[in-house]
Write the structure tokens for this entry.
Amino acid sequence: MSVATPNPATGHQVSLQTERVLILDFGSQYAQLIARRVRELNVYCEIVRHDITPEQIRKHGPIGLILSGGPSSVYETTAPKCHPEIFDLGIPVLGICYGMQLACESLGGKVSNTPTREYGRTICEVSKPDPLFKDFPQQSEVWMSHGDQVQEVGSRFVPLAKTGTCPIAAVRHETLPVYGLQFHPEVTHTAAGKTLLKNFLYEICRCKGTWQLSNFAEEAIAQIRERVGNARVICGLSGGVDSAVVAALIYRAIGDQLSCILVDNGLLRKNESSLVVDEFTNHFRADLHVVEAEDRFLNVLSGISDPQEKRRRIGHTFIECFQAEAAKIENVRFLAQGTLYPDVIESGAAVDGPAATIKLHHNVGGLPEKLGFELIEPLRDLFKDEVRKLGIELGLPESLVWRHPFPGPGLAVRCLGEISKEKLEILRHADTIVLEEIHSAGLYRETSQLFAVLLPVQSVGVMGDARTYEFVAAIRSVNTDDFMTADWSRLPYDVLARMSTRIINEVKGVNRVCYDISTKPPATIEWE
Ligand code: XMP
């Protein structure tokens, strides 16, 4: 395969010359995890629909296919299937869990429900040496999560490993390059899982392992230059890592043809915008437009306490401000956005190709297509951790690259109910303290998102000899991989104690602090 140019409609930055593996997604919650593991092993991969045709596969030119797990049973009539001819393409296939069952069933094996479902850790024993199990211990802990298993493989498959309740826990086809694992090598609970994925990629697919973010950056920069020509690109900066990395990458490509717009809505954290402003004026010397819009936002939010209405008004006002500023900049043809690969996958655009609608990224306010610019989305092939690494490579400071996510509507959704400048000030102060304390405890990187919330209730307290009647602040700290589910952080009591003492002593207007111990679901991370 030697198609070097990226698809201009999808804006993919990774040329088809890069060796790649395709992951056919059968609805697994782990498909993205498989992709990350493969990329960690220096092989570029993409997640595609399970029913991708052999013709479409050939266009991608993969050197390996991975069939993901999934919640269905292969014998159900509605079960998602792959095209049967994908096993005849001569491309090595690794089926994981459901993927293995599907491969075995498609090639003559028999799958059925087992009386002993297996969920969780179990010991896997290798029964036959094979390149797939090179350097894998004879017995090792693996992670199972299945209700079905392959019962019979006839003479077409060779069983390679077993567990106490699963006699066929790994297989290889007799003549085709088709492998299967009943357990999940991609999860960390499978102790030597990475060895198996590495063996599949390097021993079986014969990958060279050339995928590196530095190559990605060079390739992306060259493609942006070619696509943009002499035109101007605008990019909204939100204070977050994605938009900062997009801007840094585009700046490297086209220098002062990039104009950045930062809408200061008065709902940002203390110093939220100044770090970005410093970076993009001093380090990158980009053309930066800061729209001072605090009064405008506070006006439209005045008297509004419904969370959805707050969000709606903030979104509209953001777009109006952005649009007005963009109109002042001449010769703009492109709008850069920090869409990441998980957004692309969730929108279904990753597999449907050029015609698919791309979900607009909400980080910079969900700019509508009617702004009339062509989109540039240079991060759409990357995961968040890759974006962070890229940010460091591009010279962005760690303090910016490792920032916790911050929602577009900002402090407005953390200052519950009706907001005011005074309440925002109280919240901003409490929030600064919790961040200072988590940093000084060395735990910022151990938590995924941490912030203060100001509740719209007052409670009685006593300070000195006097009775007080002041607001309650809550501390929210969560740990999560994907922000779809989250657990509350088990912060040490002494760290919580310091946060609470400092907030009550230093923040005028707060006399009580609570710690939020709700998981998501059913709670959300933000309070509004
Ligand atoms: P929830 O509160 O839904 O948040 O559990 C999940 C993640 O999304 C962030 N979030 C937003 N980000 N615009 C954004 O850019 C929004 O309107 C928004 N709402 C929530 C939230 O901070 C968390 O990281």
User: Anything to note?
Assistant: The mean pLDDT is 90. DSSP finds 15 helices and 18 strands in the chain. The domain at 19-204 is CATH 3.40.50.880 (Rossmann fold).
